[in-house]
Design a protein that fits this description.
Blueprint (H helix, E strand, L loop, with lengths): L31 E3 L2 E3 L6 E5 L7 H13 L4 E6 L2 H16 L6 E5 L3 H7 L5 E4 L18 H25 L2 E7 L5 H7 L3 H17 L5 E6 L3 H18 L6 E2 L7 H17 L5 E2 L11 H15 L50 E4 L7 H7 L3 E3 L2 E3 L7 E4 L9 H12 L3 E4 L1
Amino acid sequence: AAALPDVESGAAGTKPYCVDTTRAVRRKTSTVWVRDVGIGSEHPIRLQTMTTTPTHDVKATVDQILRIEEAGADMVRLTVQGKREADACGAIRESLLSLGSSIPLVADIHFSPKAASAVADHVDKIRVNPGNFVDGAKSFDEVVSTPEQYAVGRERIVEVLSPLVLKCKELGRAMRIGTNHGSLSARVMSYWGDSPRGMVESALEFAEVCRMHDYHNFLFSMKASNPVVMVQAYRLLVAEMNARGWDYPLHLGVTEAGEGEDGRMKSAIGIGALLNDGLGDTIRVSLTEDPERELLPCSTLARVGREAQDTSSEGYYDAIPGFAESPEARLLETFTRRRGTPPDESHPLAPAVHRDGTVVSAVRAEDLASPDALYAALGARSVLGMPFKDVATADAVYLRGAAPAADDKEARRTLRRLHDAGVAVLAD
């Protein structure tokens, strides 16, 4: 088998990962075609989700895909564990076409190169996980500590991945090289550690095999359940691509985000941060709920990203004052928490500022008339009508409109009790 080119790792350093550090400018990419759906900077941010039915249950899966399509998905992913599921994808495709649906199908592959090759006949895109596609069996007995030891495993990647790459190229299929922080290979873990750098290097090796065969209809993802790790991995990947002159698109997602508010917030933090970097061409909000319920938060994030990146929005960034970044602001190899210095206790705004980030809630005059409801909305505990601040309580309230009149005793009592509880009161 041919050998992968010896590309120097860690070339990104402090190279930029976004076009502009002061505003959201979408990164220019090539287009990856998933049947007739284009993914890349020349196309809208594409929405997708994943079925939860057993793939071999053709009817249940088709029914769910139709609901997903109606909810607004541009493509849908299915789990393919083996030949039975690969064959089912053919029946699913035929059933969908008979019902008038041509939504692109994506096969999610783990551990099984044979299943990937079989399902390529039936789907439009294949997701492979570099952490388990070649060396799925995890064994940490052997330590990989030198470049020479690490290079040995690359030959195996060429051998196992090349047949799938060549088949995808022949059939016009797309591919996602989807690294997952929770399933890095033993070889990568031993050499790079459980790190964003390991995630990136794992994906780059697979990309080099694709490029070796002049196959470019692929994109990347760098998923993690921790949004901070996920964001750092994507930024590092883009910096590495920039250093190589690559322009492949990105699939964004926070893996296993959860359900309810927690799942939506984790996805908004990770995906939203990257969209405001100008990064991301297709997104999935991964929730432990019915897949069609993922499309609303998914489309909302896409809209927010589109609005931030819309260069025709006059004055969108005008209200942001100019600022100078510290030299450490965009170091991609460090992983430290930003620390702020709060004002001295004698400063009038000291009670309103929290060192780890300040939560300010806007309050209307009419809200003051229902103090118990207001305290609950601010996250304060209420005992006998008195608010008590804890870690979940807003740090400050901003009073919209005029302050209560001097004779509005109830409203002023509510504000005074908030102030006494340690919630700062801000007003014009």
